[in-house]
Write a structure and sequence with these properties.
Length: 763
């Protein structure tokens, strides 16, 4: 089979090179017959690979056949449509396939040469073992409480690979730790943890490990233990020097091909360096597909966390959470307090907000609920009830929080794409196509909503709802004509005001942007004309003021203060009624949300963001999962340092002040206020969705203004290239961090294993 594999790989290389050399001219004669014939053979072999069992080479010939077919498609297309970028793409595709089947499959070549004898070790003949046999199966049971160990002496074999035949009979079991200690000719004692890996349910690849020792191994010891309390498996056998199957990953080849080609296009492609105004059709199509891809990723992230076969059952829930059930039932019952009754122990406490006293006295209470004057409340926004309340009244079921978070977030992503495109169409039509598309991809990747989609609980649902409402408000605001000379579109002004108010009723934090909106309404009142000022003011302020008054009434009815949203009285880790402000706490949020650089390491999770407490000698809450600071996620944010130079390029003083006010307030001041305000509630990655995209758009506006005023063509090409490189950097860093956040190793080892195998192929 190795001969067939290398022959197929050689044929693919020859055919691809011939196609690439003739991309822009016709193949003729024997060359054409050879290329088309060999392509057909490779495609048929790939189809056979899908149907038949090719053993350790499973999937290899499908990759080769698919690559041959793609090269043929590129050749056929480019005969009539010349494209320098697609020619390069054909070359990158071939390189990616060769890398995938050679360099990235290093473990599969481990015992191809050398004196490695395939050996099956008998568990019953192990000279040392701990653990009990399961009488119903052939094998040894492994659980969390006991380490099971097998020792073999006098093996006197060269060991290149170790295969563990393992079975996970319990559906709740996820992973088991596996260690191997071995001797080698360079030392007498055991080399501890020569193998240190994890056996993962539904991952056959995790059962193989590569060993690289010096010479013959005499003794070997294999140890197993469950990672979590529910983790258990059955060890059915251990094999030495069994060939490691190829682990081809089409997604890896696709990522390499697309990202490398994109960078090339931003540097050399005439299309990508063409102005947006001259390339509108391509920009519209490309931006649509980028947005669709982002939405699909969001949907997949949520769906992958729903158990198999449970999707439709999610719409028939008889129980919900604090927002989807408790708030819904309270409003249906005509009250603001929740229906749950506090326990007698909680009512009798002198200070019910003291978490330590509640814990040590074993007081029964509802976690993270607001407790005030003997009643339970919720401090979460009530705007999402516009969806949840009718759904419960109509169906009798509670709306699923994960589906709600997905709908809110993906809707917000679409609107965010529309906001960005609207800004380009209004003020930056001279920007290059490459810079426009790079900016859109960075904006969607760095907007912060991925940390709500990745863990769609009711906490994240509130943030995603606020994200949707505020992006909708911003879109209607921008398209209302308020920043243009003519009169504003009053229906759009009304909608922007209404949605801005709803965003605050989802996330009180977003009130800072509602203040910005009101400032902008006032700034643009005069140019509406004397006869339209009254109508404009009504459309601009009645919706947001009406919702604001209702929120104040809602606050006062619950806590006796129109400005109290209730978090002060929440039953959580902190006693917020006694929390003191310290500047040090504020700086922790500023550093970690904005300026924490990513750390790149060769082991899982590969890209991480170590959290810093900045030497704080006090308590500061940190949620699980940390990410890099925003300025290091989206590097063009450093463009703010060129803000002064950009403003000088605006000749009209009034327009200069207006631009500085809009960009300064929305992109700098208000995000900074939000980041500083988290000192009390602590750090959580989900908060990024409240301010990230506003900061990014503001930085883009500064850079795009400089671009449009620049007359140097070479500088413009360099800017487009830099934007493309920054885009790829953002996609990689945000992609890995968001993936690790969504699928942590301890709770989702199967998905973490996929990322680990894709990057750490050399293990």
């Amino acid at each position: 089979m190795w001969f067939v594999f290398f022959a197929a790989l050689l044929l693919l290389t020859v055919c691809s090179v011939m196609y690439i050399r003739h991309f822009q001219k016709e193949l003729t004669g024997n060359k054409k017959l050879f290329c088309h014939g060999m392509t057909a053979v490779l495609v048929l072999t790939g189809i056979a690979d899908l149907i038949m069992n090719f053993g350790e080479f499973k999937g290899v010939f499908t990759i080769i056949g698919g690559a041959a077919a793609l090269e043929f498609v590129l050749y056929s297309f480019l005969k009539k449509n010349k494209s320098r970028t697609l020619v390069f793409m054909g070359k990158v595709l071939l390189a990616a396939v060769l890398l995938e089947l050679t360099y990235f499959q290093f473990p599969s070549y481990r015992i191809m040469t050398g004196d490695y004898e395939h050996t099956v070790l008998s568990l019953a003949e192990a000279e040392y073992e701990i653990g009990s046999y399961d009488s119903t199966v052939e094998g040894v049971s492994v659980n969390f409480d006991t380490e099971v160990s097998f020792a073999y002496h006098n093996l006197n074999k060269k060991i290149g690979t170790v295969h563990v035949d393992v079975e996970f009979p319990d559906e709740k079991a996820r992973q088991v730790s596996f260690f191997a200690d071995m001797t080698e000719e360079t030392g007498y004692y055991y080399r501890l943890k020569i193998i240190e890996s994890t056996l993962i349910a539904d991952s056959v690849q995790s059962q193989d490990a590569m060993v690289q020792l010096a010479g013959v191994t005499s003794d070997a010891r294999f140890r197993f233990t469950g990672v979590g309390e529910k983790d258990t498996c059955i060890i059915k056998g251990i094999e030495l020097n069994k060939p490691i199957p190829f682990d081809v990953m089409p997604i890896r080849m696709t990522i390499i091909t697309v990202l490398v080609t994109f960078i090339y296009a931003c540097i050399f492609s005439a299309t990508m360096n063409c102005a947006y105004e001259k390339n509108k059709y391509f920009c519209r199509v490309a931006s649509t597909w980028i947005t669709i891809f982002a939405v699909c990723v969001g949907i997949i992230l949520v769906f992958q966390q729903i158990p198999r076969g449970e999707l439709m059952n999610r719409f028939r829930l008889t129980e919900g959470d604090q927002i989807t059930e408790e708030l819904v039932l309270a409003f249906e019952n005509g009250q603001f307090s929740l229906l749950a009754e506090p326990s007698e122990e909680l009512l009798a406490m002198e200070n019910p907000y003291d978490n330590g006293s509640r814990f040590y006295n074993e007081v029964d209470y509802l976690w993270d609920h607001v407790f005030y004057e003997g009643k339970y409340y919720s401090y979460y926004g009530i705007a999402p009830l516009l969806l949840f309340l009718p759904y419960h009244l109509i169906t009798g079921y509670f709306f699923p929080e994960d589906i709600a978070a997905m709908l809110f977030a993906t809707g917000g992503l679409i609107l965010l794409s529309m906001i960005y495109t609207t800004i380009i169409r209004k003020w930056f039509t001279k920007i290059s196509t490459g810079a426009y598309l790079s900016g859109l991809a960075m904006l969607l990747a760095g907007c912060g909503i991925w940390y709500s989609i990745g863990r769609p609980l009711f906490y994240e649902m509130s943030i995603s709802a606020g994200f949707l409402c505020f992006t909708a408000a911003a879109y209607f605001f921008l398209t209302s004509g308020i920043f243009e000379k003519e009169k504003a579109n009053l229906p759009r002004i009304f909608l922007s005001s209404l949605l801005m108010g709803l965003s605050v009723m989802c996330r009180p934090t977003l009130a800072v942007y509602a203040i910005c909106g009101c400032i902008f309404y006032i700034m643009n009142t005069k140019k509406q004309g004397k006869g339209s000022i009254a109508k404009f003011l009504c459309c601009a302020f009645i919706p947001i003021c009406a919702l604001g008054l209702f929120q104040m009434y809602y606050n006062y009815a619950r806590f006796g203060s129109i400005f109290e949203f209730g978090i002060k009285y929440s039953l959580t880790i902190n006693d917020f009624t006694r929390t003191e402000f310290h500047f040090h706490n504020m700086f922790i949020g500023i550093y970690n949300f904005l300026f924490a650089p990513p750390a790149f390491i060769p082991d899982y999770p590969f890209v991480s963001a170590p959290f810093s407490f900045l030497g704080l000698n006090s308590y500061f809450f940190k949620d699980e999962g940390t990410i890099s600071g925003l300025v290091f996620l989206v590097l063009p944010i450093f463009g703010y340092f060129l803000g002064g130079r950009a403003l000088k390029l605006i000749p009209d003083k009034k327009n200069r002040i207006s631009a500085a006010t809009v960009i300064g307030l929305v992109g700098l001041v208000m995000p900074f206020v939000i980041v500083c305000s988290v000192w009390e509630s602590g750090y959580s990655a989900r908060y990024m969705a409240d301010f990230s995209w506003q900061v990014i758009i503001g930085a883009f506006m500064v850079l795009f203004l400089l671009y449009t005023k620049c007359e140097n063509v070479q500088k413009k090409r360099v800017f487009t290239a830099v934007m493309g490189i920054c885009c790829v950097y953002t996609l990689v860093v945000v992609g890995i961090e968001a993936y690790v956040f969504s699928f942590p190793m301890d709770t989702c080892p199967r998905y973490a294993d996929i990322l680990n195998r894709m990057i750490a192929f050399y293990k």
